Amino acid sequence: MKLDTTLLLSQYLDWLKNKYRIKNLEDSNQIITPFTNAIGDNINIYVDKIDEKHFLLSDDGETINDLSLNGIELTTTRNQMIDRILIGSGVHRVDDELTIDGVSSEFPEKKHSLLQTILRVNDLMMTRRNNIVNLFSEEVTDFLKENDIIGTSKAKFAGISGLNYTIDYTIPARKNRPEMFIQFHNHLTFSAITNSTFIFEDINEQRPLEVGDKPINKIIANTEDYAISDKAFRVAESKNIEILPFSDKNKILATLH
Fold first, then answer.
1. pLDDT of residue 74
2. Which CATH number describes the domain made up of 133-256?
3. pTM exceeds 0.70, yes or no
4. Of 57, 79, 202, 244, which sits most exposed with the smallest number of CB within 10 A?
5. Is residue 157 scored above 80 in pLDDT?
6. Closest by Cα among 76, 44, 69, 41 to 57
7. Pick from 182, 191, 187: which is nearest to 235 by CA?
């Protein structure tokens, strides 16, 4: 028996249509879609009449507001990700509202574009630091640069062993302070701290031959999602490496300025 896909699709569209609800508001209509966001709430689209032919669709700022309410900080990196999502969609970001406008005949396409964009922006819920390691590094780098901690990101240095290493952030020497090497760790395990210790020591043995002073070594760690073991702290302390929790941003700024 041949599968009647056309019939199945028709049944799906009937089901989908019946799942939509419309709520009349004072100045607009609220479309409650059957699609849900990352926290299980139905996605809403608001329809405003511009004139007899034109309409405006909006999420009323709910999408980006939900990110903030769920602990997703809108860093420079995440804002750039949102901008990339909007490119080519026809959707605009106006005071954190996602909007799109058009004429009546374009409603299906415009509504679909807005819904797709809302879903894609909502996917940023999955970019928590405990899911994407690189994002933590980008967040820390953005934070340092936005707060005028002048330095170089991802600079390469040679150790006394001849091996080359990448340091996440390097702050140049000042009159009263040697240069500073900072490594970022999303999950600072005992293994990670011993690896960073080896890197710092290898470079520290070589660096005085080049600049005259040993660098200061520090680690910025994600302590909100991962606890640091006492063993890791003891290793860092024994090697004179200060661990700065990224959650304590005031301490980071006071230490690095």
1. 83
2. 3.40.1350.10
3. no
4. 79
5. yes
6. 44
7. 191
